[in-house]
Write a structure and sequence with these properties.
The radius of gyration is 27 Å and the shape is elongated. The strands form four sheets. Strands 9-10-11-12 form a four-stranded mixed β-sheet, with helices on both faces. Strands 1-3-2 form a three-stranded antiparallel β-sheet, with helices on both faces. A three-stranded mixed β-sheet has the order 4-5-6. The protein has three domains: 1-97, no CATH class; 100-224, no CATH class; 231-331, VSR Endonuclease (Endonuclease, Chain A), CATH 3.40.960.10. It is 39% helix and 19% strand. It is α+β, with helices and mostly antiparallel strands. The protein has helices spanning 21-32, 39-45, 48-56, 87-98, 106-112, 166-173, 183-191, 197-205, 213-224, 230-238, 285-300, 310-315, 317-331, and strands at residues 36-38, 60-64, 67-70, 103-104, 124-129, 140-145, 155-158, 161-164, 249-256, 259-267, 272-277, 304-309. The chain contains 13 helices and twelve strands.
């Protein structure tokens, strides 16, 4: 195991009271591994009984087959050892255990992609080709993928660890997420331009079984239509479509000085931009000032900006709809 395995510091490891030469070597290996060490590495430099004694004395704990962690890094909980260490260290332990036979996936991959944090104690997920020999272990679940290849484009390296692609991670995680959280990582990934609705759709099409496929496909359709937030999706489905509404363009890019801005809903013939302000935007004075300057710059281009707050949109959808229709009608030439 290289010194890159880890991520949580490990202090000096005292083995067996008095530190012999071989004990000092083992302690140094654990320190270099930032709290982790593998059996194969230990056996290259010290006798196997040194590792056995460290475990017997309670100084090292086996967290996975052939992978050990410094005992002081484990939290005192009645859960599997792997779930009792910091998630960053746990992922590196899993990578050391896999030895190139799999990649971190599902909810664990979402964490590595920065889309949803895994908490201490959460189950870690690994995807592996059939026949790899990896088996689920307390604290880690192994998913077998018949056509998975452990190289780009199927897997990539992030933070020094093998991980499935962002599209695969999002589709695989969809059934595992609580209903109230399902859409958030997908929307964030598209909004931050980490992926596209088309690439996500391709990943879904390549997956034979996905619980909640219909709801996921509907979300991908909304993202493909330009929606970039739960509020925009809600407005699209309940307010800004139907009789009398124009075919709004979504996320239209407009150049303002040295920067580009994106319009939530744009009716080009009427030159009206509908902006949907989220619940967190309303009380932020700094964001309000930015919005006002942006609106003034758009007005100079002849574009009228109409803003609807989250509270009004969800509580008065019909009033918002009628107001929008009236504004659009007033902008049309007579």
């Amino acid at each position: 195991m290289s010194t890159e395995v880890g991520g949580v510091g490990c202090g000096a490891l005292v083995l067996g009271g008095t530190v012999s030469g071989v004990d000092a070597v083992l302690a140094e290996l654990v320190k270099r591994g930032h709290g982790l060490v593998t059996r194969s590495l230990v056996e290259q430099v010290v006798p196997e009984w040194t590792l056995q004694r460290a475990c017997t004395n309670g100084e090292l704990v086996r967290v996975l087959p052939e992978v050990f962690a410094a005992a002081h890094l484990l939290k005192n909980q009645s859960t599997p050892p792997l779930t009792r260490i910091d998630p960053v260290l746990a992922r590196r332990a899993v990578a050391a255990w896999m030895r190139g036979r799999g990649a971190l996936s599902h909810l664990t991959a979402l964490d590595l992609w920065g889309l949803r944090r895994q908490l201490p104690g959460d189950l870690l997920h690994v995807s592996t080709p059939a026949g790899s020999g990896l088996r689920s272990w307390p604290g880690v679940r192994v998913h077998r993928r018949r056509h998975l290849t452990l190289a780009p484009p199927s897997t990539v390296v992030r933070q020094g660890l093998p991980v499935t692609t962002i599209e695969r991670a999002l589709v695989d995680s969809w059934p595992m997420l609580p209903l109230a959280e399902q859409r958030t990582p997908m929307i964030s990934a598209v909004s931050n331009r980490l992926t596209t609705p088309g690439r996500l759709q391709a990943a879904l099409d390549a997956t034979a079984r996905v619980a909640g496929r219909v709801a996921l496909r509907t979300l991908l359709n909304r993202l493909a239509e330009g929606c970039r937030s739960p509020l925009e999706i809600w407005g699209h489905e309940r307010v800004f479509t139907g009789p009398g509404m124009p075919a709004f363009q979504r996320q239209v890019q407009v150049r303002l000085g040295r920067r580009n801005v994106y319009l939530d809903l744009y009716a080009e013939p009427e030159r009206v931009n509908i902006e949907l302000d989220g619940a967190t935007t309303h009380g932020d004075p700094r964001q309000r000032e930015i919005d006002l300057r942006r609106d003034a710059q758009l007005a100079a281009l002849g574009i009228l900006v109409v803003r609807f707050a989250h509270r009004r949109l969800v509580r008065e959808p019909e009033a918002v709809r009628q107001e929008t229709l009236a504004i659009l009608a007033s902008r049309r030439p007579t």
